[in-house]
Design a protein that fits this description.
The complex is a heterodimer of chains A (about 270) and B (about 280).
Chain A lengths: L1 H30 L3 H4 L13 H8 L2 H32 L5 H13 L2 H14 L6 H26 L2 H9 L4 H12 L1 H17 L2 H6 L7 H4 L4 E2 L2 E2 L1 H21 L4 H5 L7
Chain B lengths: L1 H22 L1 E3 L7 E4 L3 H9 L1 H32 L6 H8 L1 H4 L2 H11 L6 H8 L12 H30 L3 H8 L4 H29 L3 H6 L11 H11 L3 H26 L10
Antiparallel strand pairs in B: 1-2
Helix pairs in contact in B: 1-13, 3-8, 3-10, 3-12, 8-10, 9-10, 10-13, 12-13
Classes of the chains: A mainly alpha (about 270), B mainly alpha (about 280).
Chain lengths: ~270, ~280
Amino acid sequence: MRHRNSFLFAIPLVVLLAIALIPYIWIVLASFKERVDLITPFPKWIFEPTIVNYAEIFEKGFDTYLLNSIIIGFSSTALTVVVGTLAAYGFSRFKVPAGNHLFFFILATRLGPPVAYALPMYLIFKALGLVNTHFAVVLAHATFNLVLVVWMMRSFFNDVPREVEEAAYLDGCGHFRVFWRIALPMTYPGLITVSIFVLIFSWNELLFSLILTGGETRTLPVMIPSLVLHIGTLWGQVAAASIIQSIPVLVFIFFIQKNLVQGLTFGAVKG
Amino acid sequence: MGPVLLFLIIVVVAPLTLAIVDSLRDLSLTLLTKRGQYIGLDNFRDLIGADNKFYIAVAHTTIFVAVVVPIEFVLGLSMALWINREFAGRRLVLTILMIPTMIAPVVVGMIWRFLLMPSFGVLTIYLNRIGLFEEASVFSGSVSAFAALMMIDVWEWTPFIMLIMLAGLSAMPAAPVEAATIDGASRWQILRHIQLPLLRPLIIIALMLRAIDASKIFDTIHVLTGGGPGNATEVIATYAYRTNFLKWNLGYGAAICLVLAFASLIIAALFYKVVSGKPGDTVVP
């Protein structure tokens, strides 16, 4: 009976796994295929693997775009986490003038369509001569990720018992010392999770990168579709670039899985 | 508060002010006759009063949201009910199921473009073998292109709903379900009268987040159809992108941005009301 039950449980599960995974597997296979194996009326599941696609994208300066994505991802994460954590602590501990409105305003920046902010942001950066710089994209990514940090970190700070902080105040610590030495260390696990989320969202982001970068400052999500050419798409290279872009994400989701639901819902749902 | 205020002024307030100024001007980077003359509210009048393309994009977006979100919800909830038990390799299984949601939407788009490319896409080949899309490829027909985009969105986002529902189900107290089972309640009765009511707050959050995100869809459509064929898959985001960054019709584009920002403010207010209605306990299971 037990065996039959687990068998009945497993079959639909395998089907679900196949639906989620096979499209991805197919592009993994494609990244190791020669052109003759890629464009063929008879789909090939078994073939002689090659790394020529990976070699070709790096010859084309893929490392530049990879580095752009890394620089932009980490800088915007650092900026967002610093600004957002301070704000979250403020919202959690102090009476902020018009706090609720401000809190709502931060939420609105994320729920609105990015394309509505893209044009004004482009105009500002153009006026400042910052289009096609890393800095512009870093600021843009920080903007739409701020809400995630503020909302999640506020809920983590709310979980820190007040008594601990009050004891520190009695011992003569100032606000900043209490924040830095006591509240912040107690939220480290949450802080790391939030940082990973911000990093993934920046790493995957297309619209702002598309508008604010060009040529040598392009990020991976902008570079990958640019391999679709009028004369035909370089599918082997698209596949290779997509794999390199997505591998870090897969590794991260395995490790932050417990907090995945929290990050994807702005901290509204706890896993 | 200082840093975040300064930050918001630089990245939100200043750009929006600029957008308001530009929306009152006849400004284009490509047409020499439009050099930024002040034209009052003409841009808004044209947009709201007479822009068919805008309304078509709004209609497409509405249909898209109305179709994909319920499908994703039903499928996601079913998956969560199925997976909600302990078994070996659960963590790995969940990681794999979350792949479509977590990889870059650009990569999702490229994967499906590859699978569905004319003649040589693996899915096209198998579809051809059972007699479908032999004459024209999936993305060359208006209806099939739109349907394909919806299907891809379901593939991409159903795991997201599943994850939220799973969080709710695993945090749910076991007692009511056990008691009902002993009393002889059917699986459906348990779902209908015990599990769904307990999941209600999470269902609202999941549906709202999904509807908000689906209404903003850009990346996958940009990569797969660019809004075409014609404007068969044009949604609000691709329309605004086209107006601003392909036609460089900036004054008019700014008006579009402001209308969208205003609409999203209303949606955000609704979301905020739901999420913070009763702080703490309602939302978190």
